[in-house]
Structures are given as structure tokens and as C-alpha cells.
Amino acid sequence: MNSDPVDKLVKLGFSEYEAKAYVALLRESPVTGYQLSKQSGVPRSMIYEVLGKLTARGAAMTLRKGGATKYAPVPAAEFLDQLHREHEELIFSLKDDLAALTSASDLEYVWNIEGHENIMAKAEEMIRQAKARIYLALLPVTFPALQPALEEAIRRRVRVVVYTTSDLDLPGGQVVVAPVFEDARDRVEGLMLILVVDREEVLIGERLTATQARASWTSSPLLVFIAEHHLRTDPYLPQVLACLEDRGLDLIQEEDRELFAHALESHING
Fold first, then answer.
1. Would 247 be classed as within a structural domain?
2. Which end of the chain is more exposed for a tag (fewer CB within 10 A), N or C?
């Protein structure tokens, strides 16, 4: 990591000469412009223009001493605190300005995310920004990484419903334990998570190997609706199948009976 304060000041918007002059002022002050030029390496032809810019920034002060004009720095901590406040205010203002300029797109994007850490970071971000409700399906092994964010969401009075394959400790949240059919076990074990937040966005992740994972994120209303519908209806499939076991498959359209018959067989044998 670069520890040169001049380089860091340049990254904050200083010119190289401004940064060199300010650092030199911190090392020795008060000084005249001539002295500062020698100490900082800023050319004499540029030093007073640079000092004017530092003064305008609030990084330097002008002092009258013994008939000469000398310069001193505003203390670094004070100046950087002010700079931080100004940047923060600017970012907040710019965020609103740019949001007002952004037109709604007719395209509903699906973003691909690679890597377990990146997927979990996105899931945690979504959970921490949730305002009303969270629906989440995952395997118990994935739960601990997201547990702190889920607990914090519950403290914000966000409704949290977690669908999983065994009981989890989540006070204040609702945990729905759903059995896994044998023929679906491989698919379920490959699923990393399905996360729907505020009916506005969905993240679906899967494990490819022990070290590889990928996910898709979208705010498409249709895909969000499908994902939430899937999460909220699938846990009740065993009860539905139990009813079908008693009443037969007569209620199912003929072209769909094979699918339900296979699921019913798995339910009976499971």
C-alpha cells in the first residue's frame, strides 16, 4: 500500500504542487512563499498560485508577521475532517441529482456474479437494505454466514422467512422446514440460496464445485414474482401431495398428470 501522503492527497483532488506545498507547510511553518518553494520543490513561478489554491481550499492560512506575508497550514486533522464532510455532502447531493437524471430502462437486466464470497456479499447487502420482507431459501450450512444480517433485519422489524431443510435458530424470524424428495436431493444440495427482498429483487446462487459458485441477480418484476411464488408455495407441496394421495389425480390436467404422479410416488416412498 502506498504510504506517500503526496500521492494520497493527489487522489483526493489536489494537484501535485498543491500536495507538495501542503506537506511542506505541515513540516515547517510559518514560511514565506520563497521559503516554501525551496522546501517543497514547487517552482517559484507557481508557488503563489498554489498557495492561493490551498488557501481557497481551506488547507492554508495567510499570516502577517514582521511586515512579511507568511503561510501556515490548517492542522491536518481539522482540514481532513472538513474535507470528509464536504465530500460526503457532495456525494449525497450527487446521488439525488443522478437518480433524477436516470431514466427507467425498458430492459430488465440479469447480472451474473461469480465466486462464493461475491455472492454472499451481495446477499448480505440485499438483506441489510431490506425494508419490509425477506424470503430466503438455503441449506443449513449456508445460514451462519447470513445470520447476523438476518438478525439485524429482524431488529429493524423486517419480516424474515427462511425456508430450509432442518430447523434453524432465528428468534423473531419464521423458519419453514421442508422435506427434500430423494429425486430432488442433488438439485437442492447444489443450490446455494434463493433470496427475494421487498418483492423488488432476487438473487439465485448455486454451487458448481466445492470451490466454485455462481449466481444471477435481477430486479425484473416477472422473475422476482416467479421466485417468490416458488419459495412460498413449494414447502406446502407435501401436504398437497397428501391430499392427492387420497383423492387421486383427477383434479390435474391430463398433460400434467405424469409430473404429479412422479412427485406423488416420491412423497409416498420418501
1. no
2. N
C-alpha cell read off for 62:
495567510
Tell whether 14 and 126 lie within a shared domain. no
Interior angle at CA 204, CA 103 and CA 128, nearest 5: 70
Residue 224 belongs to what domain range? 111-236
Nearest Cα residue to 216 out of 99, 104, 132, 108: 108
Domain count, the chain: 2
User: What's the grid cell of residue 200?
Assistant: 423488488
- pTM of the entire predicted model: 0.55
Give yes or no for a cis peptide into 235 (omega within 30° of 0): no
pLDDT in tens, 80-106: 999 999 889 999 888 888 877 765 555
Alpha carbon of residue 168 to chain centroid: 25
Which of 151, 152, 153, 173 is CA-nearest to residue 162? 173
CA angle, 267 then 268 then 270, to 5°: 65
Instruction: Give me the phi and psi of 28, to 5 degrees please.
Output: -155, 125
